[in-house]
Design a protein that fits this description.
The complex is a heterodimer of chains A (113) and B (114).
Chain A: E1 4-7, E2 10-14, E3 19-25, E4 33-38, E5 45-50, E6 56-59, E7 62-67, E8 72-77, E9 86-93, E10 101-103, E11 107-112
Parallel strand pairs in A: 2-11
Antiparallel strand pairs in A: 1-3, 3-8, 4-5, 4-9, 6-7, 7-8, 9-10, 9-11
Chain B: E1 3-7, E2 10-13, E3 19-26, E4 32-38, E5 45-52, E6 55-58, E7 64-70, E8 73-78, E9 87-94, E10 104-105, E11 109-113
The chains are: A mainly beta (113), B mainly beta (114).
Chain lengths: 113, 114
């Protein structure tokens, strides 16, 4: 019940295209859903996050879509660029306590020119 | 501003040797601290977390241990390394708050056990 399932494992997108990564969760107590971006040899960095009281959050070319009833959320990268090539992790956590974050298994995105 | 420091960046150690990785946080007080391991091309595995000085919780049984001797210092140790301990070790911090800002990760230590 603590798992966050992420797909696809890898993704190749043409420059200018839309990259879509999907995640699903079971634990309805989760109330914070961040996405992390990790470049090779670096630590993950917080990219964008959403709470379940909104269905969509947009920051620049990055958008999170959230479907509370389906317990699913996704990351959309519009106008994908080669610089977006990285591994993306979705995550979920419960506010309060020691803030344990459950991570998805990661999606390696490659944007080709 | 808050910063997190991890060192060393890379480390090659023989099997059976000891290990000490250090992580320090600046610009915040009483952070929650975490050690994660990431195997090559794999996800993030939580190893230890700490909510305060001397308070360590282990998520995965193994030959690693963690200590928090100071509020903003977190150390990952091993008495005898195994080949399977190779990986990318990440320290992270968060502040316990109703407003949840997620984790901030360090730059990681690439450990190769030979």
């Amino acid at each position: 019940q603590q798992q966050v399932k992420q797909s696809p494992q890898s993704l190749i997108v043409q420059k200018g295209g839309i990259s879509i990564i999907n995640c699903a969760y079971e634990n309805t107590a989760f109330d914070y859903f961040p996405w992390y971006q990790q470049f090779p040899g670096k630590g993950p960095a917080l990219l964008i996050a959403i709470r379940p009281d909104v269905s969509e959050k947009k920051e620049g070319r990055f958008t999170i879509s959230f479907n509370k009833s389906a317990k699913q959320f996704s990351l959309h990268i519009m106008d994908s660029q080669p610089g977006d090539s990285a591994t993306y992790f979705c995550a979920a956590s419960i506010t309060g306590g020691y803030q344990k974050v459950t991570f998805g298994t990661g999606t390696k995105l490659q944007v080709i020119p | 501003s808050q910063t997190i420091h991890q060192w060393p960046a890379t480390l090659v150690q023989p099997v059976g040797s000891p290990l000490s990785l250090e992580c320090t946080v600046e610009g915040t007080s009483n952070p929650n601290l975490y050690w994660y391991r990431q195997a090559a091309g794999r996800g993030l595995q939580l190893l230890f977390y700490s909510v305060g000085i001397g308070q360590i919780s282990s998520e995965v049984p193994q030959n690693l241990s963690a200590s928090r001797p100071q509020d903003r210092q977190f150390i990952l140790s091993s008495k005898k390394l195994l080949l399977s301990d190779s990986g990318f070790y990440l320290c992270a911090w968060s502040v316990m708050s109703r407003i949840n800002y997620g984790y901030t990760f360090g730059s990681g230590t690439r450990l190769t056990v030979v």
